[in-house]
Amino acid sequence: DRVTIRPEVARSKTFGSEGTSAGQFFEKLENILLNSDPVDFSKLDLSYLQKENFDSKLEKMLADAITINSLSELRKFDQNGAVARINYNSFLEMEAICSELQIMTDVKAGVPRSSYKGVIPIRSEGHLLLICHSSGFIGEDIFKIIAKQEQEETRRREEEQLLAMEYAIAADIPSKKKFLDKE
């Protein structure tokens, strides 16, 4: 399990449109500002960042979040300090939500960009918004699960189509026989 600290403040900055990614996300990264205020982290209680504490906090936030059904609903969301949650059922839905919010839409190694355990936390319209799979599953390999579900659904549809074709062929045999008998 590889995890990283989920900061509220960016700890990185892009230095230009050239590099290993060939400027793939330069337009999204160019406006990141580094913190200019000194912070003495040795005097802060950072225990909430320990994996077990952070994971349980995330699960509680997801459970307590107010589920919204659309981004237009988010724009009307008027609950000060409340955490909102928007669910997706497929990669395409996640991509559409991220695109509408103008955040990175890609998935690397089965993990949505900037997500932690499949949950993408962002600040939008003055609220913390958690973008997550509708199953409530929290894990790095959510898209492996989605891909498996989509494969199973495709296989089920193909089987149904095959059965329907077989039934149609079987049902049509007597009419062909009658047609041939008339000739």
3D architecture notes:
This protein is of the alpha/beta class. Helix content is 41%, strand content 14%. It is built from five helices and six strands, in the order H-H-E-H-E-H-E-E-E-E-H. The protein has helices at 26-29, 51-64, 71-76, 91-100, 142-182; strands at 66-68, 83-88, 107-108, 111-112, 120-124, 127-133. The strands form two sheets. A four-stranded mixed β-sheet has the order 1-2-6-5. A two-stranded antiparallel ribbon has the order 3-4. Strand 5 (120-124) and strand 6 (127-133) form a beta hairpin. 11% of the residues are buried. The model has no long low-confidence stretch (mean pLDDT 78).
Features:
14% strand; 4-stranded mixed beta sheet; 5 helices; two-stranded antiparallel sheet; 41% helix; 183 residues; alpha/beta
Structural class: alpha/beta
Number of contiguous helices: 5
| Portion in helices | 40-55%
Spatial ordering of strands, largest sheet? 1-2-6-5
- N-end to C-end Cα span: 73 Å
Order of helices and strands: HHEHEHEEEEH
Question: How many runs of DSSP E, i.e. beta strands?
Answer: 6
Contiguous uncertain segments of 5+ residues:
none
Tertiary shape: elongated
Radius of gyration: 24 Å
Overall mean confidence score, pLDDT:
78
Oligomerization state: single chain
Q: What characterizes the major β-sheet?
A: 4 strands, mixed
